[in-house]
Task: structure prediction
Amino acid sequence: MTGEGRSTPATPAGPAWFMANELLAFVVELAALGALAWWGFATGGGVVARVLLGVGAPAVAAVAWGMFAAPRARFRPPLVGVLLVKAVVLGCGAYAVHAVGHSGAAVVFGVVVFVNTGLAETFRRRGPVAAG
Result:
């Protein structure tokens, strides 16, 4: 993360809970990519299909995220577009957990995704509130 117009890393600012939620958002994004890879390697009719899905699904998700939803995305759509990309990628991650046979974990992951993304987007738009 770098500051706007600077080449040095930005200093994390805001209350600890804000930074913890930002860290959780990153972990959730990585977990979604991991779930897509897990699903891909567990799905498919043969070794080639499993490898293609196991590598391809998270790669497609990462490219879409990097182009439209990342903080320094190449194309920055309106908030609705960003949330749509996040919903698709993170929702597919939750569905992937369900598809490999862990429905309870998929529900928990989905709830964490929903709450974390809602809080993250709300506080990113308003800026972190000082601890009080």
Remarks:
- The helical segments are 16-42, 47-68, 79-99, 103-126.
- The longest helix spans residues 16-42.
- The chain has a mean pLDDT of 86.
